[in-house]
């Protein structure tokens, strides 16, 4: 069986939060969605600042951004968004070429690469496909609610390990790449070779003394 390499996506392979950027654009493109977003900001923004409740706040904005869209329309919007990222249309949201090369290197060496992300799984799948990577994707599931979509069980922290275990993958696997030592501690500690990407964190757990910091561009 091939050794497993786990990558986070936002902040690790992508320079920023892809879901946040997509929602922001979807809201700005429609005056009714934008008006609704302004109304819920006093509730949603504070929730998003607390990691435990971030998914609830994000789901409120996600629902507003997607209400009324068909499955096809939602998918098409993700494709257009992925093409804009690939074309480097954003100053603060782009792929780290070093990360893509690292994935290619592991695949060429016979490893199995899995991207485990808190982003919606269908969005992450479209984004990764746009750069020609054929790897497994595990992310937050979306579910239809009153004409729009909201996030299911948020794929972060211990949930990432649980989702990997559902696919028969148990630690320690070969390597993990992440930008957040606190949020992704469970997948970092479950790997033989943990890597922190573009992180300025000085807080290193004594069980993660072998973590290696990398700068990717």
TrEMBL record:
The protein's name in its UniProt record: HAD hydrolase, family IB
Family annotation (Gene3D superfamilies): HAD superfamily/HAD-like (3.40.50.1000), SG protein - dephosphorylation function (1.20.1440.100)
């Amino acid at each position: 069986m091939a050794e497993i390499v786990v990558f986070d996506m936002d902040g690790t392979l992508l320079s920023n939060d892809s879901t946040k950027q997509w929602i922001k654009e979807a809201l700005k493109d429609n005056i009714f969605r934008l008006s609704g977003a302004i109304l819920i900001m006093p509730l949603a923004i504070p929730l998003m600042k607390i990691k435990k409740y971030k998914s609830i706040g994000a789901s409120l904005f996600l629902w507003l951004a997607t209400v009324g869209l068909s499955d096809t329309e939602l998918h098409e919007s993700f494709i257009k968004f992925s093409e804009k990222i690939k074309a480097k249309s954003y100053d603060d949201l782009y792929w780290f070429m070093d990360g893509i090369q690292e994935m290619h290197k592991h695949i060429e060496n016979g490893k199995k690469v899995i991207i485990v992300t808190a982003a919606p799984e269908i969005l992450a799948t479209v984004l990764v496909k746009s750069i020609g990577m054929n790897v497994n994707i595990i992310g937050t599931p979306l579910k239809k609610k009153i004409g729009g979509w909201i996030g299911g069980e948020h794929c972060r922290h211990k949930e990432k390990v649980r989702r990997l275990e559902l696919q028969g993958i148990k630690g320690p696997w070969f390597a993990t790449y992440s930008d957040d030592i606190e949020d992704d501690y469970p997948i970092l500690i479950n790997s033989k070779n943990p890597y922190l990407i573009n992180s300025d964190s000085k807080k290193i757990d004594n069980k993660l003394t072998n973590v290696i910091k990398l700068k990717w561009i």
